[in-house]
Hints:
The chain contains three helices and two strands; from the N terminus they run αααββ. By secondary structure, the protein is mainly alpha-helical.
Amino acid sequence: MVAFFSTYYPRRRAIKKVKEAGAISEETAKTSKELGIDESTLQYLLSVKDIKKTKDGRYYVSCEEE
């Protein structure tokens, strides 16, 4: 079961933080540590398809889908 995202990072705020970190493509993806977002929040965002994860475990928002 995917943990419900932390109340400290509502969905939109977390997505904004990923974008502001420049993680907008597979090439510019960042780790959870680099983003400053806990893994459970990122897993939730993955489950609702708000972000994507690279094969090496980094995260990004695909801006071409907006």
